[in-house]
Amino acid sequence: MLKTAALWRYSIFNFLLIALLAHWFWQQNQPVALPEPELSASGKLNCVSYAPYYGKGETPFIATTVVEKSRIESDLRLLSERFDCVRTYSVNQGLDYVPEAADKLGMKVLLGAWIGYVKLENDREVELAIALANRYPNTVKGLIIGNEVLLRKEQTEDVMLAYLQQAQASTEVPITYADVWEFWLKHPRLEQAVDYITVHILPYWEDDPQSLDHAIHHAEFVMDTMGKTFSKPVFIGETGWPSVGKHRNASVPSLVNQASYLRQFVQVAHDKSWNYNLIEAIDQPWKRALEGTVGGYWGLYNTELERKFEFTGPVAERRDGIQPFIWSLAGLAAFIILTLAHKERRLPALLAMGSLGILTGATAYLQWGYLLAASRDLMEWIVLAGISLVGVVALLNLPSMITRGPNKLAHSLLFVLVFAGMVTSFLLIPKMSFIPRDVELHPMLGHIIYMMDGRYRNFPLPLYALPALQYAIGLVLLGLLQRTTFGRYRRINIIALVAALTCLVLEPLNTHAVLWLGVIGLLAYASWPRKEARA
């Protein structure tokens, strides 16, 4: 039986964690005052990227997909409340109806023709887009032939020139090509075939990710550079900020940051008379498969078609309501029942395990939110939910340990967490950053590196943080941490620490990388063997 003093120390530790977590929830739910931009006389924004693939399981990668006309009509009716224009990226899968639907609402369209690897499909896209532009010349205000095709290396500059020249010869609607600003600088010849330059300015996705504080300055720098380089008008075809996802150095996705960037950008665009298109109208869950969690959360509307924020008034990062309280109460009840079931009736023991239950419940609530945002397919659900379950079971095992002492289950679960932490740390390393952009990789090798690259992977802090704290600090306070003699822990932990440190060295301003290194350090401390195991 544990000494009462140890239980009191442990209770104080848990209550300190509860106070920190409660303060974090309170802070995240507080409205933040943000700049309010001066809008046009109509009160509407210029233009927004529109894609209708926001429902469960919807994706443009299903070739047989055809978007219903009623969906497009209702979406554009909603968007017409805030925007004068929508930008599309394809005329396939029912999107050829967008100009007609927009015409009925008095909206304008930046009509996109998707250019990929397959020539036959490209030809169909361009021909249909030209036909639609000619059919709705008062609605289609620009024809965008290709989107980041050169960035993706799916066609050459000469091929793109040919498509642009074909469009120029076939319609009076202004023609353009859209790509990130660096690729316009690499392919200035394209200017001769367009009526204006369409450039993407995405501070989060820069090779040197921009912090929110520098994002607007970056946009101004890009526009200044483009203006000095090209003689034709420059249109900002995409700009925005994600509301959820992985931190990239000092570039932090969050709802408040998204609202702040867009509000500041709209004001600067108004002051400098920039024409722009925001990315994007509605969150696109399918993009998570390409870009990680962050890819699905660039929308001004969520998948329920609710506005994520307004362009006036304060904005709160989270709107949790009483959910954390309910989950915490459930955790409290579960741990008190478990403690009583192990015939432990002392007040400090009940306080110790009850406080742990509150932490476990609140953490489980955060883990559920993380799983919903980060899990892109069945395999990720199984792996990430499995890690979460291991951590929860490790915590649920503590009421037994305070009455019976350390057990094999605790050691087994610790090993799983440490090994999973090592694998996760390796996968988090942005390996593509070691390969120069102009280096051509074999397609198979490139695919393997891409699949293992950490650029798009979140730091899974909610899954590991509480178990790591309890194993490394909680068990020490309780006097229950038993040093293993399993020598391989040393090698596993060294690999994990080196990998986590590499992530931090590559992104020294990434607070999540700092916290992840701390989590791995806690797991290493809890599992570091006291001596090498004998052969």
TrEMBL record:
GO terms (BP aspect): cell wall organization; polysaccharide catabolic process
Intracellular or extracellular location(s): Cell membrane
Listed GO CC annotations: plasma membrane
TM segment ranges: 7-26, 324-341, 348-366, 378-398, 410-429, 461-480, 492-507
Tree of life domain: Bacteria
Functional description taken from the UniProt entry: Glucanases play a role in cell expansion during growth, in cell-cell fusion during mating, and in spore release during sporulation. This enzyme may be involved in beta-glucan degradation. Active on laminarin and lichenan.
Name of the protein in its database record: Endo-1,3-beta-glucanase btgC
